[in-house]
Amino acid sequence: MRNYSSESNPPQLAGPWLEPLLPELIEFRRDLHAHPELSFKEFRTTDRIVARLDAAGLKPRRLEGTGVVVDVGEGPIATALRGDIDALPIIEETGLPFASTNHGVTHACGHDVHTTTMLGVALTLQAMHQAEPLGGTVRIIFQPAEETMPGGALSCIAQGVLDGVPRIMALHCDPKIDVGNIGTRIGAITSASDTIKIELSGRGGHTSRPHLTEDLVFALAQIAVNVPAVLSRRIDVRSAVSVVWGQISAGSAPNAIPASGYMAGTMRCLDRDAWHGAGELLDQVVQQVAAPYGVDVHLEHTRGVPPVVNSEHETALIEAAARAELGENAVVLTPQSMGGEDFAWFLAELPGAMMRLGTRVPGGEEYDLHRGDYIVDERALGNGIKVLAGAALRTIRDLTDPDD
Known about the structure:
Layout: H1 15-18, H2 22-34, H3 43-55, E1 61-62, E2 68-73, E3 77-84, H4 111-131, E4 137-143, H5 153-158, E5 168-178, E6 182-184, E7 187-188, E8 192-201, E9 205-206, H6 216-234, E10 242-250, E11 256-257, E12 260-269, H7 272-290, E13 296-305, E14 309-310, H8 312-326, E15 331-333, H9 343-347, E16 352-360, H10 379-400
Parallel strand pairs: 3-4, 3-5, 5-16, 6-15
Antiparallel strand pairs: 1-2, 2-4, 6-16, 7-14, 8-12, 8-13, 9-11, 10-12
Helix pairs in contact: 2-4, 4-10, 6-7, 8-10
């Protein structure tokens, strides 16, 4: 296996091939930002991607509904690259001249950058291939509906986008990393994420006589406190299963015990086995905690996504490309995130890695994802294209020259 930390003969740099394309790609990204579309409704976005790939002489294939897959190069597939294309139901507050024209929808997670990055990689590699055959194929997947659970990745996989693919790589914007840098990590980089919804019902009654009815509010409180506590004692503590409630509602009067109540939250975990184990225990634990209070319990547990677990080899590919394209100090260790990401479904099928793309203006405001005022430093776009194109070129080199 090639030692990417000390490349003696790295592939040709992608950056010079990208430069003439970059102004157009920035305008493409701004157009996407101004016309965001929600999950599985990315029809205009899909049309724009297909039209530009067609114009480059490529042969994109539309996925069912929305989304696109395209192969660049010829010969065996060296790698796949994935970019998500959907936006969020959030009101934009950036004040940018190319702000969303679709009120209540915005690219608050940077997927407009992801989409344009993958388009830029396709166009850059196509230009290189037309000048001299690449010697292998790079498959690029423009995936719909990452922002839903369990995510559009499953639909893409069912449509065969991974057929013949040995590995896959991706990126995600990170507003806490300065532009010019990328973040990487071997192992779990994001968390599994499930949704939990619980409805309780009873007869209701007077707060002066809780013994004559089912004290439903007290039962809700016990579930809220004790279910996370019990799971933390039934699952290996090193796996850090996190259950956090976002909604609890019941009742309409201070002296009346209600007949129904509702609570909802998420369960997250960085370990795939612990994620499965906690999911199998959840119903049992909820029922046991609620049992002493006589309430009826209806639990709806929706499996979301497993954790994204980066492989060592593909992480090294990305890091080598980043150092060659952006500079020796361009790679930083990124912390693990308890957020969910459906790229995990691809990694359940293949080895691969996701990198974090720095989008923060050095010394500027530090945003968070899913904020309506999130602004990207557009220099990040070229950085993402160069790194992933460079990583893809290394996978092509490895097809015919796997050793140093």
